[in-house]
Amino acid sequence: MAFLAATQIRSTSWPITVGAEGIAAAQFARCGFDVLVQAGRDKSWYDLVVTRTGSLLKVSVKASDDGEWRLTSGYSRNDQAIGMSFDIRNAIDRWLASHGSRTICCLVQFHTVSIDEMPRIYLALPAEVAQIMRETASRIGRCALRESYEWTRPDGSTGIETLPSAWRFGPQRIEELLSYHAGQVVAAFGAGKSTPSASPGPELVLH
Question: pTM for this structure?
């Protein structure tokens, strides 16, 4: 009997999703967070809640084993009158609007990862993900988040786009996202009530 190489093992979407959530939970725990995991398939917009010393993030875990995350599946509308380009923008906008407060995206990629290796993991704000998807759609007409892709520039040269290296999972990236959301909370609270001034977290640049 011939055995498949580790990188050739294919799973259905549900086991991959469960595996991705477990790996994400373990990685956050290794970074010193308490992790609350939602059970079952019928969840809200997030899968995990991670907390540490009063800080909290809601984590939407998305898994892929083919190099792209089809995040807007289910948000597109089939309307010939408005055209494909508008439908792509609309699908991305609807996906972005579906996220609640203090949410981040945890993108787990199993493509080309052998069974004895860790998948590649990225962390990003939903707004950062939406911006990358808009850029990808304008370049190659694909309404998905791709880990890497090749495209032809207006001058005819070929470009290779990859997800920002700053998105890679790690303590520094988590702290950036925590600081961003802490700044958002301070700004929202200050807009409604008179409170002593507080310094918001550093602004994240949308790549």
Answer: 0.81
